[in-house]
Amino acid sequence: MASDIVLQTQLDGLPAPHRGKVRDVYDLGDTLLIVATDRISAFDVVMPNGVPDKGKVLTRISLFWFDLLKDVVPNHLITADVQAMPPAVRRHAALLEGRSMYVKKVKIFPVECVVRGYLAGSGWKDYQKTGAVCGHALPPGLRESDRLPQPLFTPSTKAAVGHDENIDFDGVSRLIGAQAAASLRDLSLAVYTKAADYARTRGILLADTKFEFGAAPDGRILLADEVLTPDSSRFWPADGYAPGRSQPSYDKQYVRDYLETLDWNKQPPGPVLPDAVIARTAETYREAYRRLTGKAW
User: Fold this and answer.
1) What does the pLDDT profile of the chain (297 residues) look like in tens digits?
2) Domain check: are 91 and 1 in the same one?
3) Exposed/middle/buried for 251, CB within 10 Å: 0-12, 13-18, 19+?
4) Cβ-count burial of 187 within 10 angstroms (0-12 exposed, 13-18 middle, 19+ buried)?
5) Same-domain pairing of 182 and 230
6) Angle CA 102–108–109, to nearest 5
7) Residue 239 DSSP class
8) Where is the domain boundary, 218, 240, 262?
9) CATH code (residue 63)
10) Domain count within the chain
């Protein structure tokens, strides 16, 4: 199993990639090659071993959503067919097939566009302390995991290292201008609404998610990076939904739960994950794909 895991790439004939927590990104001039590896992070630390198929699952889910949402917002995808990519990329087809996207280069807005439809995670902690979520006042008496009266746009700054910082809408306006801020808010809410409505038909609740948008050379705003994957979103099975507690989710919760049992300070390097934790996490990602798309893995 471990022999099929891709932890990093270094493709001959291409420039050295920029490495994020999961993706290796190759700058090809006006375009980018985005390669989703099988790396997994928790508490902002990348673990030393990866999860089989994770990069391929993330890529397939993003492609599914890009297609479903194309009438709401255009996106940066050119092709995910390696044979349609430039010759210098095609020669690496065996490694790249199923885990890569060839995309337009856009100027990414320095804002994580977070949308919350349910009271969970840091939003729940914020509400308990202040009665609000990121400055949005909410009715008293809400429980953990309650559905919010309406989806909330709760943006944050994009931190190169460590945790993102929540900011209000005025803060976004100061960063990128009022018109762009309004566009990102409206697009984020529109994308969330369509995605959440679709997911509900598949027996999944989209509790919250984050989007990245970029400005194309022609000025259009494009949906970029990954979209609505288990890494960027909180998906809950609808059939077990019960407000008043945390919910099981299609993500890396098995990894986080295991790490919480260790005497580890949540600083690099991360501990090696046991095979059982890796296997359960891999199956959770595959099940998210099956449930969302209705397709076999």
Assistant:
1) 455 899 999 999 999 999 999 999 999 999 999 999 999 999 999 999 999 999 999 999 999 999 999 999 999 999 999 999 999 999 999 999 999 999 999 999 999 999 999 999 999 999 999 999 988 999 999 999 999 999 999 999 976 655 678 899 999 999 999 999 999 999 999 999 999 999 999 999 999 999 999 999 999 999 999 999 999 999 999 999 999 999 999 989 889 999 999 999 999 999 999 999 999 999 999 999 999 999 999
2) yes
3) buried
4) buried
5) yes
6) 155
7) G
8) 240
9) 3.30.200.20
10) 2
| 52 and 86 together in one domain | yes
Token readout for 132 is: 């609000």
- Amino acid identity at 259: L
Residues 112 and 227 in one domain: yes
For residues 114 and 220, membership in a common domain is answered with yes
Spatial separation of the C-alpha atoms in residues 210 and 142, rounded to whole Å: 23
Final residue belonging to a domain, choices 76, 105, 134: 105
Residue 159 CB contacts under 8 Å (≥ 6 apart), including other chains: 165
Residue 165's pLDDT is 84
Give the range of the structural domain holding residue 32, as residue numbers without chain letter: 1-105
Confidence at residue 183, expressed as pLDDT on a 0 to 100 scale: 98
Structure tokens at 183: 């566009």
Cα–Cα separations (whole angstroms), residue 12 to 16, 88, 89, 239, 248: 9, 8, 9, 48, 42
Q: Please check whether residues 130 and 232 belong to one and the same domain.
A: yes
Answer whether 38's CB lies under 8 Å from 7's CB. yes
Question: Is the peptide bond between 269 and the residue preceding it cis, with omega within 30 degrees of 0?
Answer: yes
CATH of the domain at 157: 3.30.470.20
Q: 235 — alpha (psi -120 to 50), left (phi > 0) or beta? A: beta
